[in-house]
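Researcher: We plan to redesign the surface later, but first we want a full-length starting point. Tokens attached.
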């Protein structure tokens, strides 16, 4: 019963993300893929798990590490996919691993560089300060304290800042609500700092 509810929840969130991705897309968008980057993040985590018996377990500290790939599409969106590790001792220990698939919407600027052509001259432009919001589908598999797997969705807000043509810094806050076996629930918050490298 729980797994069926989780699948229904994932399908609902996937539909919302799909609508977000294609909102505002026009025929003026020349290239589907407008940028590709790899990203590495590190920072704080704070999570609380609650069982059906209302017993709760909380874990927090430094040790959230994330890495993945980002693909800029349709001017203002980035599709993201990656892995996250929650390490109980910061850079060691064994707490949790999981995958992340998400969508970022850049509401103030474009998500990637823009090419301007004038009189046979081509110029790439990119706004330095790029705030965004978005959502993601996540799973977390715990090996020690909680010893179970959680699946669900979350929201995020963040900002990118260009350091050079190829490098950019990142600050991001995530909030996730996940479900596990036997109606167990998990909420987690991450505060992450990162560095991205533009491949395209």
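Model: Full-length starting sequence:
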């Amino acid at each position: 019963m729980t797994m069926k509810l989780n699948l229904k929840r994932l399908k609902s969130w996937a539909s919302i993300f799909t609508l977000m991705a294609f909102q505002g897309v026009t025929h003026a968008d020349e290239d589907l893929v407008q940028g590709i980057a790899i990203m590495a993040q590190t920072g704080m985590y704070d999570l609380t798990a609650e069982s059906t018996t209302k017993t709760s377990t909380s874990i927090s500290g430094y040790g959230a590490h994330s890495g993945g790939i980002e693909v800029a599409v349709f001017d203002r969106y980035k599709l993201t996919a990656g892995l996250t590790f929650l390490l109980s001792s910061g850079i060691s220990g064994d707490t949790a691993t999981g995958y992340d698939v998400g969508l970022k919407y850049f509401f103030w600027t474009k998500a990637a560089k823009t090419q301007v052509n004038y009189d046979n001259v081509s110029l790439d432009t990119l706004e330095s300060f790029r705030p965004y919001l978005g959502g993601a589908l996540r799973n977390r598999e715990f090996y020690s304290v909680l010893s179970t797997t959680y699946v669900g969705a979350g929201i995020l807000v963040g900002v990118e800042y260009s350091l050079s043509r190829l490098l950019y810094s990142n600050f991001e806050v995530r909030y996730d609500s996940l479900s596990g076996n036997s109606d167990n629930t998990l909420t987690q918050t991450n505060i992450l700092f990162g560095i991205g490298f533009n491949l395209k």
